[in-house]
Amino acid sequence: MLHLTIRKFCALSVAAVVWAAPDIAPLGKYTAAERRHWAFQPRADVAPPVLTDAAAKAWIRTPVDAFVLAGLRKAELTPAPEADRATLIRRVTYNLHGLPPTPEEIAAFVEDKDPKAYEKLVDRLLESPRYGEQWARHWLDVVRFAESDGYEYDTHRPDAYRFRDYVIASLNADKPYDVFLKEQLAGDEMDPKNDTLLVASGFNRLGPLRKNAGNQDVASSRTEVLTEMANIVGASMLGMTMGCARCHDHKFDPIRQSDYYRLQGYFAQTHASDVIIATAEEQAKYKATMEPLESEMRKLRFAMRRASEEDKGKILTRLEEIDGQIPPPLTAMYAVKNEPKEMTPIHMLERGDYRNKGAKVGMRPPGVLLPEEAAELPLETEKPRTRLAEWITDPQNPLTARVMVNRIWGYHFGRNLVTTPNDFGRMGTRPSHPELLDWLANAYVKNGWRMKPLHRMMLLSSAYRQASRSPNEKLFAEKDPDNKWYWKANRRRLAAEEIRDTMLAVSGRLNPKAGGPSVMLKIDEELIKDLKRPQYWVTTRDRGEHDRRTIYMIYKRNLILPFMQVFDSPDTLLSCARRDQSTHAPQALELLNGTVSNDLAGALAKRLQGTAREKVDYAWRLATGRLPNERERALSMKYIDDPDPVALTEFALSLFNSNAFLYVN
After folding, report:
1. Helices 63-74 and 451-459: crossing angle, nearest 10°?
2. Distance CA 437, CA 564 (A)
3. Which of 364, 536, 544, 626 is the most buried (most CB within 10 A)?
4. Same-domain check for residues 337 and 363
5. 547: Cβ–Cβ under 8 A, 6 or more apart, which residues?
6. What do you get for the CA distance between the two ends of the chain, in Å?
7. 241 inside domain
8. Nearest one of 13, 336, 342 to 189, comparing CA atoms
9. Share in percent of the chain as helix, strand, coil (round to 5)
10. Global pTM?
11. For residue 240, which of 225, 224, 256 has the smallest C-alpha distance?
12. 3 state SS of 184
């Protein structure tokens, strides 16, 4: 039976309130079978397998390799040869930066005779600010970051970009993951005067938010806000589908409905807080505009209670007119704060309906991960989210470190050890290499929860350096079609951001500016007109800003940039555990006919100089990291020989459509 003893939590539990009223939910019991699930067990204290033969000694570079090679041998498979240097630098540069290496960087690495050349390359890439920009995108996917509310009005969040910049800066500084999580869950409780921590606490407000002028039911809205806060903690940090227990006990995992609402209890005091940093003049102007609008809206909402159906329609129309007159919010930090006097009593809700309140609950982590005697804490407890953060980041927590190292592994190797990164429950998959997962998680915690040493260990391994083709391709593909045992590198297609950023880079147009307000690109007017409030889309005037990395583009829930949408960019309504990779005709049509690709193909064409062959070779080196083969060169030369002035642009466009450009081996 699992007894997860977490000293701080249990010490608090001794003095916890034990509800005596009949309307208080019981704590519940958990069977030995429920506690036995692999993900709820303490991490095993494992050591890398000992392989002493000459072949193993030659292949094992880091402890990761010992685990992988042992698995390969058990499955009667052998590793692929090492990838050539040009392939390897392209792979690792995309992996850490989301951008291609330059032809000069490739040539220097290929010619470098230093035995530690690859090690130096990895270190250089990890120290670059481009690293944070690439890996922030992964975390922002998981926490469903966006800069608008979603739903009908999709109100713009002009200051949400500060959270994006916080994530990038934290990753570049190699901030320990336990600190990273604590700051996001409870930054405002840690230090309410620290701007960085206030911005980090905006994590609790990242979910979609309904703002309907005609449906101002506070209880309904509050329930949805608490639901978003609880669900994302389960998915992003614990790898648990907590949200499935909102309406009833979880159908598959030992998560009681009472567990779900006790998790919500940690947020009962939490309310939105926009920490205004606008000037006094800007605040006075905003107040003068808003006061009459707010006064009229209050009167209209009061009148709505007694209005006839016909009058309600007129009131709704007027409310929408007023909503369209509301000016953009004042410059602020998008944060949260505790309001004990406005604490929301937490009840279990029948079928998740806020109108069907059941028994009251306090706050407590999921019971299956606690000792049987662990009590709940009262909602009035000071710094409640700090209590939750301390439990989540306790080194003894069996989930947190496993979940994160599994994510990191998947981004590097193209396949997670647990292929359901947001679900470590019974309906998720079991780890393909459970000992490796626990060893990595233990190493992660032991090294102070720092991510860069973990990257380094994975990237320097022989397992990572394999070619994406094996001499035994046909046989091994039949035995292990999903490459579960990592007998070769997984070839992958570039993500939406990587495709756009690469086109900018190879065309010479990439603007390296980092941070600041997000950029709004010029898009089809018809798309903007479809928005409920089109005035929120104001194209950024500085044309140079349009060439910044895609992570600095606006991420709006109801208007995903068309180029991004066609290449599987997530919708940001839910946590995205991993990007889908589809292949369909609209992608080719977008690359052939889209404004972005045609504009940047023209810029690449202008960059090409010299003889026809020199233009072809340089274009291929820029776009694909290698020279063309004879057939590719012959086909390319046909474009160059064409006297049509647009032929060179069409040649550049053809490169953007090639598999050599779109895929990383």
Report:
1. 50
2. 33
3. 364
4. yes
5. 504, 509, 510, 511
6. 45
7. yes
8. 336
9. 50, 5, 40
10. 0.90
11. 256
12. helix
Tell me: pLDDT of 213 over 60. no
CB 384 within 8 A of CB 266: yes
- In terms of domains, do 185 and 287 share one? no
Indicate the helix (H) or strand (E) that contains 405.
helix 400-413
Which residue type is seen at 327?
P
Point out the domain boundary residue: 452, 486, 520.
Answer: 486
Of 19, 3, 81, 109, nearest to 469 by C-alpha is: 81
What amino acid is encoded at 530 in this protein?
D
The per-residue b/e assignment along 297-334, b for 16 or more CB within 10 angstroms, e otherwise, is beebeeeeeeeeeeeeeebbeebbebbeebeebbebbb
Cα distance between residue 518 and residue 520, in whole Å:
7
Give pLDDT tens digits for 545-563. 999 999 999 998 988 888 8
- Spell out where 362-496 has E strands: 492-493
566 within domain boundaries: no
pLDDT surpasses 70 at 154 = yes
pLDDT: which is higher, 323 or 337: 337
Q: Cα-flanking dihedrals φ and ψ of residue 387, to 5°?
A: -60, -45
Number of domains in the chain: 4
Give yes or no: residues 16 and 77 share one domain: no
Among 315, 330, 345, where does a domain finish?
330
The Cα–Cα gap between 502 and 564 comes to 14
pLDDT tens sequence across 426-468: 999 999 999 999 999 999 999 999 999 999 999 999 999 999 9
Q: Please choose, from the candidates 152, 344, 132, the residue with its C-alpha nearest in 3D space to the C-alpha of residue 229.
A: 344
Domain that holds residue 472: 54-133+397-486
Record the tokens describing residue 61, joined without a space: 């570079």
Tokens of 346: 């937490």
Q: Which residues partner with 548 through β-bridges?
A: 511
Alpha helices, H only, 423-537 = 434-446, 451-459, 473-479, 496-507, 525-529
Q: Are 552 and 501 in contact (CB under 8 A)?
A: no
Q: Which of 566, 567, 652, 559 is nearest to 602 (CA)?
A: 652
Closest CA to 1 of 42, 29, 32, 30: 32
Q: Return the SS3 of 465.
A: coil
Q: Are residues 365 and 412 in the same domain?
A: no
Tell me the one-letter amino acid at 508: G
Say how far apart CA 408 and CA 515 lie, in whole Å. 24
- Cα–Cα dist 378/80, whole Å: 57
Q: Are residues 386 and 401 in the same domain?
A: no
Closest by Cα among 444, 488, 424 to 91 = 488
Q: What is the pLDDT of residues 568-593, one digit of tens each?
A: 999 899 999 999 888 899 999 999 99
Whole-number Å distance between alpha carbons of 350 and 261: 11
In terms of domains, do 350 and 304 share one?
Answer: no
Q: Do residues 399 and 240 make contact, with C-beta atoms less than 8 angstroms apart?
A: yes
CB 460 within 8 A of CB 123: no
Q: Does 653 reside within a domain?
A: yes
**Same domain (yes/no): 366, 456:** no
- Give residue for tokens 């901030």: 175
Instruction: Give the dihedral sign, CA 97/102/104/106.
Output: positive
* Range 219-232 burial, b when 16+ CB lie within 10 A, else e: eebebbbbbbbbbb
Evaluate whether residue 497 is within a structural domain.
Answer: no
Phi and psi for 493 in degrees, rounded to 5? -90, 145
What angle (nearest 5°) sits at the alpha carbon of residue 244, between those of residues 222 and 409? 110
DSSP class of residue 518?
P
CA separation (Å) from 412 to 92, 241, 476, 489? 9, 24, 21, 10
